[in-house]
Design goal:
Helix content: 55-70%
Strand order of the largest sheet: 1-2
Radius of gyration: 43 Å
Mean pLDDT: 76
Length: about 700
């Protein structure tokens, strides 16, 4: 250190206390030379020819201390912080108090130097030097940063955030937080967490959150944000970090991770989390239990088990708990149990233990709507009104749906009118429910009258005249007065959705041109047809008698970059079956496998119907392949179609006894291993006149073949 300072001092001017006098300088530069006296060895010279180490100075000389503080300030201004620290260390080593030395430093010069270095992009080097060297002098690094340098440091942090450099940013935050810098003022914490989420970097998010005193709140935010991204693994990692950093269990974190399990569609993961909490003899609060029940609401037995366990834990169920019970009953289609729970809630309300809310009524309405018990829903509506609870959009939608699903279109329209009179503005779902009710009741003209009336009085009025009039529907009077719809549309803003247009396309019946016009209109208003739209168009085209047109639509989807889904293919297969073209149906079924589109149960049932009047050996083999495919896919096949095929095939074999066995054998030996089994079945049936025979085909259920003797 002293050698370095000696080198530094040799290239710097001498301090004022060691500067020669003016007379001495004049004598050295004089043109006349005077003999220099010989030095007396007993006397030491007044000035050294080399600059002595800084630590050898007498720092009680204020002028000397001032000089070195000015020198240090100048070095800092030039960004030479290594030299700056050398001087500071020497000053402190000589016994001078650092506070006294800092008071003499020029803060503006230091700030200017820090700003210059930051602009040059050498942030890491400066911080490493300052934060490693300055604390050794007994000074907090923050004391070297004034308002200007703090703003510059904030700007650098924001630049890292904008550039998405998450690792340098979090490392910088760690360093600054370690020296008590107010990092919350540098960048908004939520923005840093958002960047960590987008980078799928839970480690960086955890490191950043640990720098704050309210880390438990940030951990919950991190867990939830990863859940919204459907990244359960990262959310669980953040949750584990939160449990390790907290001295006591954070119930909010437990509730959040349970909710995230539901968001990510893995409700089973929530159960061991709850069990781990209980294993530590920790009683969860009502919010954790409600989240657990809500996430597992599709498992009614589990929900009822948690509800009963709440009593053992001494946790009182609130109205949310009972609402979740009703929701679980709704999902399980347990109408009677839902009614019993509702009556229990009413009883608790009468005792003052609970207060029913709008969610309770909306849920029970949904239960009755799914069960098509619209009268019961209207009865409970009166209970709701008497309780002074105002229905919201969801409540009205559930009520309207209860009547609409039961086919009571008139009652649904009455409820819609009541909704408007109550001042509740309907959403697109309400409109769609009414239109769907009209379509299901085959009241297509009424659906179009409502649709056109709502459009004309909604946002679309100015654009209606610009559209191609080919799709316009001229109402046919079938006893419904148009006056019925005037009060339903006068003050209702209507915004059709893709689902709305899909419903109206179904109302076109077999009118392909009108359906196509609706699809074009949908595009005009910025809506994109979805797979359901295309499937409906295929169905309408096929129902109008154009099998070729339906297949052309399917090909057009491929050409347009729209991958047909299982619904589109199933619809096309159904049309092939209706047109008695099994060969084409099986070709489409094979195309599904080619594009790795998994058939559903409807697809399998539809393809099994694709057969001629009498089953051939090839059809039996195709049917067997479909059954094998169903089993591999996890579906339980019904042997009805296979039974019919084998019956018809075997009947055909028996009726053609005049054909020799050799010819018969030659016709069936080309179908592989299954043909041998089928040949044995046929021969067995041919040689036996039993009224009922049972054959087990490759693990299928028993197929009873009732073949009458010839």
């Amino acid at each position: 250190m002293r050698d370095a300072l000696s080198i530094l001092a040799s290239v710097t001017p001498l301090p004022p206390s060691a500067t020669p006098s003016a007379d001495y300088r004049r004598r050295r530069h004089s043109t006349t030379t005077t003999p220099r006296p010989k030095p007396n060895p007993k006397h030491k010279p007044q000035f050294s020819t080399t600059y002595p180490p800084l630590s050898s100075f007498r720092w009680d000389n204020h002028q000397s201390l001032t000089y070195h503080s000015e020198l240090a300030s100048k070095l800092a201004k030039d960004g030479r912080f290594v030299d700056f620290l050398m001087i500071a260390e020497s000053v402190v080593a000589s016994g001078v108090k650092m506070a006294e030395f800092l008071a003499l430093l020029d803060s503006e010069n230091i700030a200017s130097g820090i700003v210059t270095v930051l602009r040059e992009g050498n942030l890491s080097g400066v911080l490493e030097m300052l934060f490693s060297g300055v604390p050794k002098l007994g000074v907090e690094p923050a004391m070297l940063f004034n308002e200007v340098t703090m703003e510059s440091l904030k700007g650098e942090c924001r630049r890292l955030l904008r550039c998405g450099e998450i690792e340098p940013l979090v490392s910088l935050m760690d360093t600054l937080a370690g020296f008590q810098f107010p990092i919350k003022e540098f960048v908004e914490p939520s923005h840093v967490i958002k960047l960590c989420i987008s980078k799928r970097d839970p480690t960086a998010a955890i490191r950043y959150a640990q720098n704050f005193p309210h880390a438990e709140v940030l951990f919950c935010s991190i867990i939830l944000e990863f859940g919204k991204k459907r990244d359960l693994a990262s959310a669980l990692k953040a949750f584990d970090a939160s449990t390790q950093n907290m001295s006591s269990p954070n119930m909010h974190a437990y509730r959040t991770i349970i909710d995230v399990c539901g968001l990510c569609g893995d409700y089973l993961k929530s159960r061991p989390i709850y069990e781990e909490l209980c294993a530590g003899n920790i009683t969860p609060n009502i919010y954790v239990l409600n989240s657990l029940m809500n996430v597992n609401s599709r498992d009614l037995n589990y929900v009822l088990g948690i509800y009963k366990e709440m009593e053992k834990l001494g946790v009182t169920a609130d109205i949310t708990s009972h609402n979740i019970l009703l929701k679980s009953c709704c999902l399980a289609s347990k109408v009677k149990l839902a009614q019993d729970i509702y009556e229990e809630i009413r009883d608790l309300e009468s005792k003052g233990a609970l207060k029913l809310d709008v969610f309770t009524y909306s849920t029970i309405f949904k239960v009755f709507a799914d069960a098509k018990k619209w009268e019961k829903a209207l009865e409970i509506k009166e209970d709701m009104v008497s309780s002074g609870i105002t229905p919201n959009k969801v409540t009205w939608s559930s009520l309207i749906s209860a009547c609409a699903s039961a086919g009571h279109v008139e009652q649904a329209l009455v409820l819609f009118d009541e909704m408007l009179q109550a001042g509740c503005q309907p959403n697109s779902q309400c409109f769609n429910i009414l239109l769907h009710a009209c379509v299901e009741a085959c009241q297509y003209d009424r659906a179009f009258r409502l649709f056109e009336s709502w459009k004309d009085r909604g946002f679309q009025k100015s654009l209606t005249d610009k559209l191609n009039s080919a799709h316009k529907f001229v109402a046919v009077n079938q006893g419904y007065s148009s006056r019925v719809y005037d009060h339903l549309t006068a003050k209702v803003p209507f915004t059709p959705t893709t689902a709305t247009y899909n419903i109206m396309m179904k109302a076109c019946g077999t009118d392909y041109l009108r359906a196509k016009a609706l699809m074009d209109e949908m595009k005009t208003f910025g809506l994109s047809p979805n797979h359901i739209s295309w499937s409906i168009l295929i169905d309408i085209c096929g129902s109008s008698g154009s099998l070729r047109g339906a297949l052309q639509i399917l090909s057009f989807m491929h050409e347009s970059g729209i991958q047909p889904d299982v619904i589109a293919y199933t619809t096309a297969i159904k049309i092939c079956v209706q047109h008695k073209n099994p060969k084409l149906a099986f070709m489409l079924f094979g195309e599904m496998k080619k594009y790795q589109i998994k058939p559903n149960m409807v697809t399998y049932d539809t393809i099994l119907k694709a057969r001629s009047v009498y089953g051939s050996l090839q059809e039996v083999q195709q049917c067997l392949e479909v059954y094998q495919h169903m089993r591999k896919a996890g579906y339980k096949p019904n042997d009805y179609y296979l039974k019919q095929l084998i019956e018809e095939w075997c009947e055909g074999v028996i009726q053609n006894e005049h054909q020799n066995k050799g010819q018969f054998a030659s016709n069936i030996t080309d179908f592989g291993r299954q043909s041998l089994l089928l040949e044995k079945v046929a021969e067995h049936l041919h040689d036996n006149n039993a009224e009922s025979l049972s054959i087990d085909l490759r693990g299928l259920t028993k197929v009873c073949l009732h073949i009458l003797p010839p």
